[in-house]
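FORM 7B: Structural annotation worksheet

SECTION A. Query
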Amino acid sequence: MPKPADRAAALRAGLDRHNHLYYVEARPEISDLEFDKLLRELEAIEKEHPELVTPDSPTQRVGGAPIPGFKQVTHSVPMLSIGNAFGEADLRKFDADIRKALPAGSKVEYVVELKIDGVSMSVRYENGRLAVAATRGSGDVGDDVTHNVRTIAAVPLKLAAKTPPAVFEARGEVYMTRPEFARVNAAQAAAGEEPYKNARNLTAGTLKLLDPKEAARRKMSFFGYGAGAIDGLKVTSQWELLETLKTFGLPVNPHTKLFDTIDGVIAHCGGWADKRKELPYDTDGLVIKLNDFAQRERVGFTAKVPKWAKAYKFEAEQGVSKLGGVEFSLGKFGELTPVALFDPPVSLAGTTVSRASMHNASWVAEKDVRIGDTVVVEKKGDIIPQVVDVIAADRTGAERVIAWPETCPKCGGPVEKEETGTSYNFICANTGLCPGQLAKRIEGYARRTRMEIDGLGREVAIQLVDSGLVKSVTDLYRLTKKQLLALERFGELKAQNLLDGIARSKDRGLARLLPALTIYMLGEAMAEVLAEEFPSLDAIVAAKPEELARVKGFGPKRAQFVREFFDSDAGRKLVAEFKELGIKTTHEKKAAPAGGLPLAGKTVVVTGTLVNYDRVGIENAIKEAGGKASGSVSKKTDFVLVGEKPGSKADKAKELGVKILDEAEFRRLIGAG
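SECTION B. Predicted structure
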């Protein structure tokens, strides 16, 4: 009889091999039942001999305690998005642009991969062992979701390599199959819970769970398609990289193809429009990448995306139905959005659509949409259904003009017409008291990019407002478990998770609190800028309108909306209650590096468009590094940062002998990449 240590080692090796056969090579040798039997045997040995447990044992995928919250991870190589291509003409232009950037006669190859509709992920291995898994996030910074990615059987806990590289960051997509999505939704329905809208949203929500045991109950999977940082391995092409991923034990989509002509790429893309419906997972297009990495370097990037890759999007699926009626949904600022009700429902992208947005009042007037009309319905990105047109030729004369409500459908308050430039809409004027608007604001307050309150989505927000428990965002911090347990569909675990999420949100800080307050024209980006300039809520409240207007990117109009909010009775009350409840209302600026700020005393001029920054973002980056952003080049200018399509400032810099930096050099200078 083998020793426990020997048997445990053999079982671990065998289970890793069977995972590789199942997920990478798609040729399993044993049944799921036999696999589970081997896993249970290993669990029993490790339970009796805990000293034999290894960090990469298959038994360690699940079992850790819930984490207190999510840490941020800075990607060593940014996770960039890819530009879109719609149809053959776009693909031919893409090919022509690439050939123009390369020496005449260059051999060009393209790798074409299915674009999986999931969540982008970076999985970092250090010396062959899984170290960190992080979401794309902003592209530069994502959330550490290692505890949940470890539950994904398709992601190996260690690379299948005798001498793995010191660092290997696999990039790929975490997704959920349609059968698993249906199973989870069936369980939701059985528990009286709201079903999830689509597999992608469910995957994103699962990755954001704090308890890995909960995540493990929803079976996610993974396809690798790229790499970030690599140390100790040289890869020269996309095809070689995909083969490396498979060798290391990371699954690659089996429908990936290599082509040496754009004609082959176009034919391949066209063939997937209908064939994709036979797959067990959702796709929303294909990705075409230049194969050779050296050629990629030569082709380069635009302001935001690589020039050597395109995401070919399937044409939006359309259907036709009758507009049987119209309902009106309410937004956080009181705006009424018309929602079309179809009779009969229309089948689009594998789902039955019974209702869809019709934008706003001016759009309805422009299209002359009437009840009883035959309308064209489109599913944007295979996710969001919208009415896109009216077939006026089908009218019989019995169609009726859409009547806008004179009172709010949620609170009965007066509805007013609001004009913005060339468009207009109708809004509920009962701003402070309308429960429909309040529920939208509560939902927005809890968003991940704002106060990040797990468990507080749309349905719960409506429930809290309709029950009378929440009349303001500050009421969230006064909720008790007893109150929550009295609500429908609230059990012990759900109530405690929500209370824990609310408690954690107290420490988010000013930059995330400000956009959560639903101040007109103050989103996440501008809130960050404002918090950098005025690092406490007290400082913002005390600021004069002209001081706010001087904040980069603000101007008088945005400053006026901020000033009006904090001058209102509701605004003053919120500020006082935030302090009373212990909510963090300050912002901590980034500490200066030990050796001093890299741009201290330097004047920097920016010209052209950049990959990693918009105009406000680059000015903030210069300021945070100790520099001053200037709009004109002179002999006193220290650097000119040049992006794509630079203007005359670049010529002026050359004329004056001012040092010119590209974006990569600038990022290295400030320690950002």
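SECTION C. Observations
The longest helix spans residues 4-23. The first strand starts at residue 72 and ends at 74.

SECTION D. Sign-off
Analyst initials: ____
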